[in-house]
Amino acid sequence: MDVGPTKLDYYEDMFKLQSEATILSYVKGDDGRHALVLDRTVFHPQGGGQPADLGFIAIADSDFKFVVQDVRSKDGILFHYGFIKNSTEEADSMFEKGKEGLLYVDESRRKLNSRLHSAGHLLDVCMKNVGLGHLEPGKGYHFPDGPFVEYKGTVPQTELQKELELDINKLISRGGKVCAAVLPYEEAAEMCGGCLPDYIPKGSTPRILRLGDYPGCPCGGTHVSDISDIISVTVSQIRTKKGLTKVFYNVGS
Ligand SMILES: [Zn+2]
């Protein structure tokens, strides 16, 4: 398929849930699933510990709809997997190269994903507040079925769980603006407390996420617009195994 990387509209504006895009290709993947490839998208793919956005893509001035059931990124190209609603030959022919699509991201799912994901960032801040700043944040799993953040290092099993929960809810009630910006490497490093993780290539322009006045971190995900939009967090379990510590949490409604 001869198409370039998809422009990630959610990268610049993570609160935009509707947009327009041009269809570049309607493909059938190796696994038999059909996918739309667009020149740009507001759909966040599964990745970075965050589930994919769902929703639909409509053809302008028509009733034709493509239901998005999954979104994946491969080599910078985003594949919107799903099916054409009430598929007929006529409907299928509407989703060809060059057609304009109207994109609609499912708002309630995106909101929940953004709250879960943002809570993971805020837990990183709280780990420092409770004296565990020496633990290096690892991967996160921000799916609704059992979200956790992982850290390299072990912690004493004390009253930490309660302490973390109190601290994160204190920060949530205090609130603070959430911003994401693509920055020059040096500026990004400064915003993240002086240095960036090794996986960010030197000289690149990473996207930096910042919650309130706390130090930033590189992130490509979607987030709440204010810390208070996380609403509340419960820390259900802290598990240490093989030199790694997992903090299990969830967001309240
Ligand atoms: Zn993030």
Automatic annotation (TrEMBL):
Signal peptide per UniProt: none
Annotated InterPro entries: Ala-tRNA-synth_IIc_core, Ala-tRNA-synth_IIc_N, Alanyl-tRNA_Editing_Enzymes, Thr/Ala-tRNA-synth_IIc_edit, Transl_B-barrel_sf
Protein name: Alanyl-tRNA editing protein AlaX-L
GO MF: alanine-tRNA ligase activity; ATP binding; nucleic acid binding
GO biological process: alanyl-tRNA aminoacylation
Alanyl-transfer RNA synthetases family profile domain span: 1-230
Organism expressing this protein natively: Morus notabilis
